[in-house]
Amino acid sequence: DAKTTQPPSMDCAEGRAANLPCNHSTISGNEYVYWYRQIHSQGPQYIIHGLKNNETNEMASLIITEDRKSSTLILPHATLRDTAVYYCIVRVPGNTGKLIFGQGTTLQVKP
Amino acid sequence: DAGVIQSPRHEVTEMGQEVTLRCKPISGHDYLFWYRQTMMRGLELLIYFNNNVPIDDSGMPEDRFSAKMPNASFSTLKIQPSEPRDSAVYFCASSLRVANEQFFGPGTRLTVL
């Protein structure tokens, strides 16, 4: 699975959009981009995943660049409850169950 | 559904003692995963099962660790003998299929004195 690079920390004002970047320049054509988050003292929580098209669900939007070397997770209206560590993971679904978690980005939403 | 259930939530034991962590996956999920999280190493996969059969145990640190899944609704992770460096939060997760999202339990915080 390709390696990902994320900034270690970010701040966001409550009610504003939070844009979390992820670089995955060695991604292969059949690898998906997954996002999970971990709120303090809880287990990780799935957010969204995509291959090359932009994806949106009730939690967030995922924007993947045309060359697929980077992506951005967007939380449209961040709340204090969105304060968490966000993990960007690249994997081939169906190949293995492994999720390889990096260090992630600690998002602090401030009032 | 109650989600993935883990017990105990907290465990404090002394070095050399046997520790057993328990997990009940979400009903109907075919895959079960055990992860360990520490400050130094982050979140790492230890082992995972498909239909109660261990598929990949390459993350199990050493022979002191063993995991079983006797049926579709129960799994255990055992450490014998335990050591202080085993202190961590252990998460169990399950998924419907290998490609699907993984649902994590609340974790067991293990402290080995």
Structure described in brief:
The complex is a heterodimer of chains A (111) and B (113). Chain A is 0% helix and 45% strand. By secondary structure, chain A is mainly beta.
List descriptors.
heterodimer, A: 111 residues, mainly beta, five-stranded mixed beta sheet, four-stranded antiparallel beta sheet, 0% helix, 45% strand, globular, B: 113 residues, seven-stranded mixed beta sheet, 55% strand
Helix content of chain A: under 10%
- For the report, how would you describe the main beta sheet of chain B? 7 strands, mixed
The run of helices and strands of chain B is: EEEEEEEEEEE
Number of strands of chain B: 11
Q: What is the helix tally of chain B?
A: 0
Question: Most extensive chain contact?
Answer: A-B, 19 and 23 residues
Strand order of the largest sheet of chain A: 1-9-8-3-4
Descriptive notes:
- The complex is a heterodimer of chains A (111) and B (113).
- Chain A has strands at 9-13, 18-23, 32-38, 45-50, 55-56, 61-64, 70-75, 84-91, 105-110.
- Chain A is an all-beta fold and 111 residues long.
- Chain A starts with 8 loop residues before the first strand and ends with a strand.
- The model of chain A has no long low-confidence stretch (mean pLDDT 92).
- Chain B has 113 residues and is mostly beta strands.
- Helix content of chain B is 0%, strand content 55%.
- Chain B has strands at residues 5-7, 10-13, 19-24, 31-38, 42-50, 53-56, 65-71, 74-79, 88-95, 103-104, 108-112.
- In chain B, strands 2, 4, 5, 6, 9, 10 and 11 form a seven-stranded mixed beta sheet that branches.
- The relative contact order of chain B is 0.34.
- Classes of the chains: A mainly beta (111), B mainly beta (113).
- Chains A and B meet through β4 of A and β5, β9 and β10 of B.
